[in-house]
Amino acid sequence: MRQTGTIKFFNYDRGFGFITPEDGSKDVFVHVTAFEQAGLPAPEEGAKISFIAEDDRRGRGKQAAQLEQV
What sequence ranges are listed for the domain CSD (predicted)? Predict the structure, then answer.
C-alpha cells in the first residue's frame, strides 16, 4: 500500500534517513539507494515523498521503497 510522508531526517554522510508517514504511524527507514533506484535527487528534509513500506531484508523492521516525489 502506497503511503505519503515527509522526510524527517537524512544523514548524507551515512546515506540513510527517516520518513514520517502522514497517517501518524511509526517513522520508516529510507536508504539512499531507494532514491537512486527511483531516479530522484538527494533528499531534502521536509520534502514530501510517497513510498511503499517493505520489510527490511535484515529483519530490522520496515524500510521505504518505490519512492515517488509528491
Answer: 2-69
Distance CA 38, CA 64 (A): 11
Cα dihedral 28, 36, 40, 48 in deg (nearest 10)? 0
pTM for the whole structure: 0.92
State the Cα–Cα distance between residues 13 and 68, nearest whole angstrom: 22
Q: Residue 60 gets which letter from DSSP?
A: S
Integer CA distances (angstroms), 68 to 2, 3, 27, 59, 64, in order: 10, 10, 17, 24, 11
Residue 55 C-alpha cell reads as: 520489510
